[in-house]
């Protein structure tokens, strides 16, 4: 893959000073010098790290192994899938520019990579809500999401049966599964005020043992950031960010995920869970885009990125939200600068607020642009965004929109495989090989069904026109078989 001109890949593993990481798993003191304590009702943070499949990591995460010079089977598989050399993948993992969310407890996983040197990835959110959907429906949505090209899936279930739903999803999924543990933590207590650091750590530990590959941790929302959202049009729109803000306001204390971040790191290191640093203060409207609250949190996410890397924990950073077109490139540049090129994982962004019911389109526009400028994974948005829980049709519509956005970004970043795909379908189109055109398209069934609407007979599958222009006007037909030497002679004579 050629390098993106605006996002030069600098340095490599050899230039990245390893390492404050001790591969024996001995943890460093926290910045405040606090000891890691076993919470009274929480997990045993010093016990042998095992998971439901009985495997241990002993703190030998992908970046720890990469910095030791090893090429793991996961790195080799990512290299194969991306068309990169295993050494490049290892060096990018060591450097922290590529993450491979691969909890050893996730038996069905086919490892994939997220980072600047890889193709742009897309995530689909699924999950039950307290009022809608069932376990079977969510597993069906997982299968649908995989069928339509989701590279990762986040299970955002709330309400009852969270654990069973997640276990069924992890068991079935060949793509990495992400979660937002604070949702389950909130389900386990009566109200937000009852949440504790121990409860949060207990849920993170339990999900890590079950094989969850990456987790959104909203540790960057600090109490000192909260006054910055006061004048916003839409306040706080992140569910996790909103819960933590209310907790901090009620208790007049710092975010427990921030104060206990070393404990979070210890669990994630034990199970090689990739941390996805949540953007709890992301803007929820164009009016709030790129404001002081958003960037104050981003600076904290930069600090936390360093702490993850120092602990040998894989990390990516989540981003907005709602951002107008002209601010997208700067948003990516700032994240890459403040977070030392950690993979950026954005929700959309939506480039306007005016189209509820069609926000897969408003957000895919932003997603394509941020992908072009260096975002590594795009969280899809469905047409149901802001309006309700997506159903199967919404999941498909959202994924198709994001496959297009990611592919457009790959083209802009000079990805050779992406260019070959475009060339192949264009050649079929110009040859009037309709069946090859359908087969090479993102959504063959829809492409053929639309052709069939007006020209259903087999005979028309070789026709040198379609119903758009008709046989007389079809310009591709009209220039087929042209003698280009004669054209050149005529053009020269006329000059
Ligand atoms: S008729 Fe028009 S739209 Fe159809 S194949 Fe020809 S050029 Fe393309």
Describe the secondary structure blueprint for this structure:
Elements: H1 62-67, H2 73-82, H3 86-95, E1 98-99, E2 114-115, E3 121-126, H4 135-147, E4 152-155, H5 162-172, E5 177-179, H6 181-187, H7 197-209, E6 214-217, H8 239-251, H9 256-259, H10 261-271, E7 274-277, H11 292-310, E8 315-319, H12 325-338, E9 344-347, H13 359-373, E10 377-379, H14 392-412, H15 416-430, H16 434-439, H17 444-454, H18 475-478, H19 484-494
Parallel strand pairs: 3-4, 3-10, 4-5, 5-6, 6-7, 7-8, 8-9, 9-10
Antiparallel strand pairs: 1-2
This protein binds iron/sulfur cluster.
Overview in brief:
The chain has helices at residues 62-67, 73-82, 86-95, 135-147, 162-172, 181-187, 197-209, 239-251, 256-259, 261-271, 292-310, 325-338, 359-373, 392-412, 416-430, 434-439, 444-454, 475-478, 484-494; strands at residues 98-99, 114-115, 121-126, 152-155, 177-179, 214-217, 274-277, 315-319, 344-347, 377-379. The model is unreliable at 1-54 (pLDDT under 50). By secondary structure, it is of the alpha/beta class.
